[in-house]
Amino acid sequence: MQYGSSGNTLNNFISNGSYSFCNPAFASLAGYSSLALLKMLGMSAYTIIQRFRTGSFITPEDDIYKKIINQLGLSHGNMVGTKSDLVERSRENHLNDLENIVPFVLAGLFYIGTRPKFDCALWHFRIFLLSRLLHTIAYQVPLPQPTRTISWLLGYSSIISMTIPVLRSIQL
């Protein structure tokens, strides 16, 4: 594709081509990416909830929250400066989301540029989202290994599988 000096070709490609909601593969990517991002944001909120449930605040400036918890009669002892296993588990889960969901969104955007078959793209997106949901359940319940490892591997494989056609379609 050649890009003229006016940029009209690029604008037409973006608005009428692969990166348009008229393209069902792009619309699916947008939907599944949005769900994955909301799931990731949910883990952030869940971590905050766990901090309040356990009274586990790491930094001294968060002492104000401990005082509020004590005033409400919800004290969990003097846990400022300590770590809670529940908080750490949710934090690690959230970090794992960051390490996987952001690459999924980026790889998915590049993948859409290869104009994949809709069914193939849809399965990549579904497998990834389901793997992240299962990973979270396996991490938070916790379920016995290798449940979490297999769920992570499925999502990771989906990202790699989307990246291969991208690399094949470009000339480095």
From TrEMBL:
Catalysed reactions listed for this entry: RX + glutathione = an S-substituted glutathione + a halide anion + H(+)
Signal peptide region: none
Primary location class: endoplasmic reticulum
Pfam families named among the record's database cross-references: MAPEG (PF01124)
Membrane-topology annotation of the record: Multi-pass membrane protein
A single Gene Ontology CC term: endoplasmic reticulum membrane
Subcellular location: Endoplasmic reticulum membrane; Mitochondrion outer membrane
Similarity-based family: Belongs to the MAPEG family.
Protein name (database record): Microsomal glutathione S-transferase 1
Organism in which the protein naturally occurs: Adineta ricciae (Rotifer)
